Amino acid sequence: MFEPEGDVWYGIQEFDLLAKNVTVPGFSTLYPNAHCTVTGDICQLVTGEAEVNAATTIASLVQSDYFDLTLTYFLIAGIAGVNPEVATLSSVTFARYAVQVALQYEFDAREIPSNWSTGYLGQGAYAPGQYPTFIYGTEVLEVNAALRSLAVGFAKTAVLNDTSDAAAYRALYTSPAYVAGASPPGVVECDVATSDVYFSGALLGEAFGNFTKLMTNGSGVYCTTAQEDNATLEALLRAAAIKLVDFSRIIVMRTASDFDRPYLGSSPQYNLFYAADYGYDPALQNIYLAGVKVVEGIINGWESIFKKGVNATNYVGDIFGTLGGTPDFGQGALLSEQEALDKRSLGKKKRTRHEVRDALAAFVAERDWAQFHTPENLAKSISIEASELLECFQWSAEAKPERVREELADVLTYCLHLADRIGVDPDQIVLEKLESTRKKYPVDKARGSSKKYDEL
Length: 456
Fold this sequence. Notes:
Layout: H1 3-7, E1 20-23, E2 33-36, E3 43-44, H2 50-63, E4 74-82, E5 92-95, E6 97-99, E7 104-106, E8 120-122, E9 140-142, H3 145-155, H4 164-170, H5 179-182, E10 187-189, E11 191-194, H6 202-215, E12 222-226, H7 229-241, E13 250-259, H8 268-273, H9 280-300, H10 302-306, H11 337-343, H12 353-367, H13 375-391, H14 401-422, H15 426-440, H16 443-446
Parallel strand pairs: 4-13, 5-10, 6-11, 11-12
Antiparallel strand pairs: 1-2, 2-3, 4-12, 5-13, 6-9, 7-8
Helix pairs in contact: 2-7, 3-9, 13-14
């Protein structure tokens, strides 16, 4: 992503990346060349830092006539901040998910409601922890988990670099929550959070960790911070959609140069301004030491394994299912691209269940009532309002339509509040229940009958 990360690959004994230098139109003016071995089997580029540089460089690469990338494996490699709850300085991490954690609403922490844990919340949400309703498509990208496992195996054969400075600094992370942070470096499977903002602090780390879990249905494990990965992956995904690359041939590797939060007793400012150097040198070295094992593993196993590709047993792609298949993360699995366009007011405007839930969430947030909306209280309220609906018919089969509408609205309101509070999608659970009910009441037996399923 920047010069020192590229330099560690030059002058190594395994192969010569400076044998061929190809100037590619559209690359950064700071890093205008792709560097390749004499045969062109292995090449390297430096994107430049942050999302705009990464997206532009990779888009230029895939559209270049200089390269045939249809069978290419991509190793996205750079240094990163690390979550001490998951890994430590000098560690090497491999991600399955890249989550664009900064793609959220942001409020200054000094101005948030007292019951909010953070000033970050998903686009279109009304409180932290709610799934975003404005979907851009780049929020989560998932790569080939089977390929990641092979890469991890290769990397574990490397002898990682570490320094006395890194060891001394990680020893300060004595909190029980930071056992991983105080441990020696290793190779870890965990996920990367993309943000152009270089952040520091436990509260921000926790907020972005929670957002990672939210966007991946709890399966993502936030451990590293990066500025480029979602942009790089999105550019490659769009290239894959037009058959220029194979998205299942991507490995995301980050090495830990600094912690994303301070040890207990220190400050986020010290962590950012003065502590970032302790793991910097070993992290750079480990890009090469672990990365070269991955590259050699692919080259040596080309004919037997990698030429034909590593079959992905997990979903691979973005939140829209652009490359086919159904996303296994987030409510994006239920949200079509057209629905997302509608939510962004780019398509035909229509009222959806999302708008109703948004309006309810806003109503609650304005009054700071979320603190009272425990699942127990909401379940009680559903029962109470259902009784009031029934009361409309207490003395007559003909009730006043206006009152029925009001009481029914109350019941539905509390049902939607409860669904939101426990994190389920109303449409999904109704359809799932309908499917099981279909099996209990087959049409040939249940048609025209009011009998219970076990009496049919």
